Amino acid sequence: MATVLVASNRGPVSYVLGEDGSLAARRGGGGLVSGLSAVSSQESVWVCAALGEGDREAVRRGVGEPGVRMLDIAPDVYADAYNGIANSVLWFLHHHLYDIPREPVFDAEFRRRWESYRGYNHAFAEALAAEAAEGAAVLVQDYHLALVPGRLRDLRPDLRISHFTHTPWASPEYLGMLPDDIREELLRGMLGADELGFHTRRWAAAFTDCAAAAGLGDTRVAVYPLGVDGDDLRALAYRPEVDERRAALRHEIGDRRTIVRVDRTELSKNILRGLQAYRELLTTHPEWRDRVVHLASAYPSRQDLESYRAYTAAVAALADEINTEFGTADWQPVIVSVQDDFPRSLAAYRLADVALVNPVRDGMNLVAKEIPVVSEAGCALVLSTGAGAYEELKEDALTVNPFDVSQTAEALHKALSMPPAERTDRTKRLTAAATALPPQRWFLNQLESLRDRTPAPSPT
Length: 460
Ligand code: G6P
What we know:
Blueprint: E1 2-7, E2 13-17, E3 23-27, H1 31-36, E4 44-49, H2 53-61, E5 68-71, H3 75-94, H4 108-131, E6 132-141, H5 148-155, E7 160-165, H6 172-175, H7 180-191, E8 195-198, H8 201-213, E9 221-223, H9 230-237, H10 240-253, E10 257-264, H11 271-284, E11 292-299, H12 306-326, E12 334-337, H13 342-351, E13 354-357, H14 367-374, E14 380-384, H15 390-393, E15 398-400, H16 405-417, H17 420-434, H18 439-452
The chain binds 6-O-phosphono-alpha-D-glucopyranose.
InterPro entries: Glyco_trans_20
Protein name: Trehalose-6-phosphate synthase
Family: Belongs to the glycosyltransferase 20 family.
């Protein structure tokens, strides 16, 4: 039985089923993976969902990693819970992404999907209840699993339960669009936890406001701003496979300056306005033509959703337009990479003169923290006020309203023109802020706080 449990939709490993029937394991990275490595694997279990056919086959064959328990949820239930509710409703609410004249629509179809979401959450709670030792600590992650704490508390009142939200939290007006009973179920589900963690004070305060608006008083929020481990990241960024990609990129861009961004192709990341700002920069400051290249890694994400497919196509089309408008025989103004290739992203980080991070709303955004740590010559950071990272980095970033394309274009110009000494000084301070709470400490702080708390009563 485990004394420390983590639950998240996406686990630390996934399986790819080959045509010959073989199963290949792919290990993921990220803050949670390095965070959990702070505790020994004998005492921990990570409960996650089987995401695709490869994962399901692994569960059927009994293939798995020690300490990882994959749940094989019926594919239609899973699709409704993950695509139909988590990514189309909760993600859109927390990031304020709805196209309001037409969305959202909460009808019978929505309620059918919500039942699947509830079933998927209950399956997680039951698996956790079965794996947890008496008094164990359970750290539940993100909007996919908002109903787990409440259900788990009913099943196992002895456990210490936390829930961490990696996204922003919706404003009360925005969350207020949900049907009343569903909103209450969501909030009560979360309030089954002893502690509710957020990346920034802003999102924690939004949760508290939403709970108060629903008449559910709450004092259990806590703020843990996830940072990066500077030594680990630099070690990764200076491996031979990254050196190779760096050399290839340098060859492609010559001695031009670079504006670097790295995102999933995600509606909230605001990639289109970023490209519009770059186009405006090349128009209003023609002196940068042929002297700068925009390296944009924008790898496809959540392609089961039509709005994401359309967005991915729009990003590619706008990049092409800019290249056609300004490009010359030996200068391609924007280079878009659609591969989820972390070594290539690290190579781009190393070459970054300017980092562009302009999400409309983002829980934290670790790219804003990673680029200053890795960049070879220091970089100027253009950062949106909508990123969680803004709270910690605002003093030394060039901050922008994510909707203001002209302001963003001007910030890019200032960033490109920043004197080297100022850039170095700012990068030093950005690096210090970015590495203040590395993943292992982030994880252990939550674990310690949870162990110090007496179990909370269920909200009445
Ligand atoms: C965000 C969420 C994570 C999620 C990730 C990738 O960072 O907070 O929970 O895993 O996006 O999205 P995906 O849908 O591919 O898991």
